[in-house]
Amino acid sequence: MQRLKNIASALAVAALAAGPAVAQTGKVSDDVVRIGVLADMAGIYSDLSGKGAVEAVRMAVEDYGGKVLGKPIEVIHADHQNKPDVGSNIARQWFDTGGVDLVQDLANSAVALAVAAIAKEKKRHIVVNGSSNMGITNQACSPYAVHYAYDAYSLAHGTGRAVVEQGGDSWFFLTVDFAFGHGLEKQVSDVVTAAGGRVLGAVRHPLNTTDFSSYLLQAQASGAKIIGVASTGADATNAIKGAAEFGITKKQKLAALLLWINDVHALGLDAARGLQLTNAWYWDMNEETRAFAKRYFARVGLMPNMSQAADYSSTIHYLKAVEAAGTDDPDAVSQKMREMPINDMFAKGGKIREDGRMVHDMYLWEVKSKEESKYPWDYLKPLSTIPAERAFQPLSQSTCYLVKKS
């Protein structure tokens, strides 16, 4: 009986995801719609992106029916190695000779910014789900770039604001030294100072650092109430573990500014207990999210994070836009992507603005204790919902050339 329920649930998800007229025919370049997943396949962000991102996109294509406008949908993938030159070279080859219509995921802000410039030049679509840098919808914006899952503004106005409101009014930042860390540090610093708090300093460490001792000692010496961890993935988990080993957390608190369900899993509830984090999505939110997560887990062996769920959702949205446009012409598809609302297991009432920002609710979570966790991957409890209109940078503050200022 349970098996029949599971099958029915999977079929229901597929039916909801599928476009309204999959058999319809239209103008498709090269007689195929090709999606390239450009991800960190083996590096520091591979658990957050990697194989999981590829499988999420494949699931979306399968659930859509494998065709759009009567033409096949193909998924390819490559490893950008967290190097902007590598990522941009792959994207250029994909656009010039590979027939790629959409590049997905783009974990690593420096890579995402580099690829956004090429997408604008080549008039091809990208959807950024694994990066936070707000340049995607500001100076690097274009009709072809969509920032979908989250960004530095939403993280700062989630975790950063919550910590300040709880009395954490003096900060020192432990920041990874590239575009992602710089952007996140700036956004949270702005939130702290606007709320009357103080930023006492910052120290920057290279990507993929294993020894945090010197950086943590500087943070400890600052005397700040809050040490803001402006990194993610293995860097963040190593910093959090190191702070506990040095005894820093006995007198100072950590604010993990971008923590993922994968990080909580790696840390364990003893180390992560009580940490607050802002995420766009959690696998155990409702029946829809659980149905998707169970199918995903069967393929990957891990629960999906918000970026991987967004890879699925944004792929479906792109394919629906192609269907609605009757073509894969980038300008026509761009217009439809911005016209059509997003209502699925990732977001309700989501909308892509003219600057390319997909606006939706964000959520503040707290990591459970072992005693509170009742089953595998039962890690987070909700604290508050951040409405879409507050979660993301107002258009009035945008520097995107596509935004018409009154």
CATH architecture assignment of the largest domain: 3-Layer(aba) Sandwich
Query: What is the string of SSEs from the N terminus onward?
Result: HEHEEHEHEEHEHEHEHEHHEHHHEEEEH
Strand proportion, as a percent range, falls in 15-25%
CATH superfamily of the largest domain: Response regulator
The value of Rg in angstroms is 21 Å
The low-confidence runs, each spanning 5 or more residues with pLDDT under 50, are 1-23
Mean pLDDT: 92
Number of E strands: 15
Largest sheet: 6 strands, mixed
| Shape descriptor | globular
Instruction: Could you tell me the CATH topology label of the largest domain.
Output: Rossmann fold
Top-tier CATH class of the largest domain: Alpha Beta
In the residues, how many domains can be counted?
A: 2
* Cross-sheet strand order for the largest sheet: 2-3-1-4-5-6
Number of helices: 14
Structural class: alpha/beta
Helicity range of the residues? 40-55%
- Give the termini separation: 59 Å
Features:
406 residues; alpha/beta; Rossmann fold; 2 domains; 6-stranded mixed sheet; 4-stranded parallel sheet; 15 strands; 42% helix; disordered N terminus
Would you mind describing this structure in some detail?
With 406 residues, this protein is α/β, with parallel strands linked by helices. It has two domains: 2-150 and 285-359, 3-Layer(aba) Sandwich (Rossmann fold); 153-279 and 363-391, Response regulator (Rossmann fold, 3-Layer(aba) Sandwich), CATH 3.40.50. Helix content is 42%, strand content 18%. It has 14 helices and 15 strands. A six-stranded mixed beta sheet has the order 2-3-1-4-5-6, with helices on both faces. A four-stranded parallel beta sheet has the order 8-7-9-10, with helices on both faces. It has a three-stranded antiparallel beta sheet with strand order 11-14-15. A hairpin with a 2-residue loop joins strand 2 (67-68) and strand 3. Helix 1 (2-17) crosses helix 2 (50-64) and helix 2 packs parallel to helix 12. The radius of gyration is 21 Å and the shape is globular.
